[in-house]
Amino acid sequence: MDKRTWSRDRLATWESGKGLLLGLVILSLLGGGTWIFFVKGLYLLPEDMCDGTLKRGTVTRVLPQARAADTGSRAHGAGPDLSFSCDVTTSGSSYLSGLARVLPVSREKWLDSYRGSGGDNRIVHVSADGGIEAVAELESGSAGVYVPCEPPGVPSYNASADYGVVTEFSVSDDSKVTGAELRQILTDVAYRMSRHTYELAECGKGRDLPAELPRYEESP
User: Does position 63 have pLDDT exceeding 90, yes or no?
Assistant: First the structure.
């Protein structure tokens, strides 16, 4: 083989290798672009949502991947009529949804509403100092928290009623986590919403709420 032929063969080999490399790069970019297109939704959500009561890391941990996602929160009313909502929805119909309200209800009546006819067999619950109670349902993706509240501006006809911040937080049936792990996540978010609503409604008399609730596994 003369020098000219060897040079042509080497050039052809180099061009072929360059074409293969370019093809791999294009495929990689297309694959990455496809991944971003279909799953970017959750990762484009703000790091802190719903006035800091919900984290993006919690959402990506619980909800399945989605092309698009949206979040919103709203406080309405004041004192004994205050409510605070928090929602995340995705293009795949997955959701996280919470509502905290100041209501004229005692802790006992609130807890009885969760027990229903099944008693404690339907729920797990844990208590904290100051009359705080947390509940998670065993058969659904839902958790609730009760925090006693003494809001200003209570109407005279309800002056003797027990008030509390009542919060429920739930997830769609396609949650990536289940069981005890999911129940704890939902309860923790519900409690953060409760603390936030407690402050918005100006409940209590300078009482500090605990930073977090006891874990369910720590309860008797």
Answer: yes
